[in-house]
Design brief:
Layout (H helix, E strand, L loop, with lengths): L1 H46 L1 H17 L5 H11 L6 H22 L4 H17 L3 H11 L1 H19 L24 H25 L5 H23 L1
């Protein structure tokens, strides 16, 4: 009954997911994460700056699965042993800003759907400034897919440039957005300059690629989808009531 949903649904969800997470998902994630970071490091050592480019392009998919958490032990060890990271954080920063740039491009190209336009601008700014990409990824880029492809293209070239120029991070970032860029300040200011330039290249390419790839749905298509959605919801509601 509706009066019990607020109590029963969360409790039932936790009752199922808590043991499932502790006994299956967490051990599996730890096992897969160990091999994931080993493969990424091997690929980087084999291909050099191309490894940074490929990782940055793939980073949103890694974040979606939660496997980016497996990078933390490597980062802690890297900073403790050699004092810098030339791979993970470089790819992460470029990818985050490119997710925001792709979302902004959707906002610029959207004219008929005011809600989508507003959401795209908000999510884009959040990703670029604060490094929080989940709203942009789930709400815009992955939902329409073409912006995700545009962001991946930009990330490949932006991170590739940064990797080629030898950009390194010298500290862990609390936020992989513009506010976190001081982590690239090292012995030479040029490290920060090349890092910012790589991010700018990635954002520009992501923005342009998304403008080219993304096609706004006409108002008649949006209206039809809304009508279909309401019809399905009404049918489900009637079935449940019956």
């Amino acid at each position: 009954h509706d009066s019990l949903k607020s109590l029963v649904v969360p409790f039932g969800t936790l009752l199922i997911m808590a043991p499932l997470t502790l006994w299956l998902l967490a051990p599996a994630g730890s096992f897969i994460g160990n091999y994931l970071i080993k493969f990424i490091l091997w690929f980087y050592q084999t291909t050099g700056f191309l490894g940074v480019a490929v990782l940055s392009a793939a980073f949103p998919w890694i974040v979606m699965t939660g496997m980016h958490s497996a990078f933390m032990p490597y980062l802690v060890q890297a900073f403790a042993s050699v004092g810098n990271d030339p791979l993970i954080l470089v790819a992460n920063f470029v990818s985050n800003l490119d997710q925001g740039a792709a979302a902004l491009a959707v906002g610029v190209k959207t004219h008929h759907n005011e809600k989508l336009r507003s959401t795209a601008f908000t999510c884009g700014i959040t990703a670029i400034v604060a490094g929080v990409t989940e709203p942009a990824m789930y709400g815009i880029n992955f939902k329409y897919m073409k912006p995700m492809i545009g962001a991946m293209i930009g990330s490949f070239f932006g991170a590739g440039f940064a990797g080629f120029m030898g950009v390194k991070a010298f500290a862990l970032a609390g936020s992989a957005g513009l506010f976190g860029t001081p982590v690239f300040i090292g012995n030479s200011i040029m490290t920060l300059v090349w890092a910012l330039l790589g991010m700018l290249i990635g954002m520009i390419i992501s923005f342009i690629a998304t403008l080219i790839l993304y096609k706004e749905e006409g108002p008649e298509v949006s209206d039809q989808k809304d009508s279909n959605k309401k019809a399905v919801e009404a049918t489900v509601s009637d079935a449940v009531t019956a």
